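Posting here for the record, re: AHM.
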Amino acid sequence: MKTIFETIKTIAFEIDNAIKTSDLGYSNSENSSGEDQLKLDVQSDIIIEKAFASVSVVKNLVSEEKEGVLELNDLGTYTICYDPLDGSSLVDVNLSVGSIFGIYEGELKGSNLVASAYVVYGPRIELVIAEHNQKPVLYRAVGNTFKEIGTVTLGKKGKLNAPGGTQAHWSDVHKKYIDALFSDGYRLRYSGGMVPDLHQILLKGGGMFSYPGTTDKPNGKLRQLFEVIPFAFMYEQAGGQAIDDKGMRLMELVPSHPHDTSPCFFGSNSEILKLKELYGMKN
Ligand code: AHM
Ligand code: MG
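Prediction output follows.
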């Protein structure tokens, strides 16, 4: 596992360099979800694929930017599901973006995730790694290495509210929930990049990030293997919770296709409790 984390550190510097120096235009292709790919999406994907190609414990790679599974090493143990450049459409307005990695052993489902990591490319490069039975660890790039900063713990109740999805397509119960948070004094924090938005809530002690099912996207937008499950693990390890719109832990998701999405709610305990109350979910 250590080799995988060291490889992610190398990848982080390479992708950061690509963001800062490469062409920001579109490629001529679409990803598996039918979205236009930026040249940077493709480039970041190649950087990750090349970096893991020589890591023998990695059996397979599954990328948000590609259909199917890339087999690397038959004798390897782990499958890494990754979103190479999440929020890439924000690069042209110079907002923060990120990379997300879910490390799975065996069948690709939430309960088989053994570790997760994400990188934030902002004014500084930061990396957070989560493993079982310990708090996530935050690293910050200093020169060309990562310095360990400390562990990440969510408070019981936060102040930030990051509500995703098109409001015109929210359900009435969801509107009620988001309004209830604002009435309780929460402040809006939503950049459109889940990595910096979830990172901000984690580092500022708590809050709620939601991307619900909507009338136009009944299963939400965010992908289970690459985005939802890795962050669900982060939030649980940090002392928070991550559930879907029925109250099921996101760590229990079993995708039937690598690109399946799920409604998702990530927060500290107080915000999740309120969500369950208003949505009428069982505790
Ligand atoms: P991407 O993987 O194509 O970049 O899409 C994922 C991003 C998330 O980072 C973000 O939370 C969400 O899409 C924003 O979507 P919306 O614009 O619908 O709020
Ligand atoms: Mg993404």
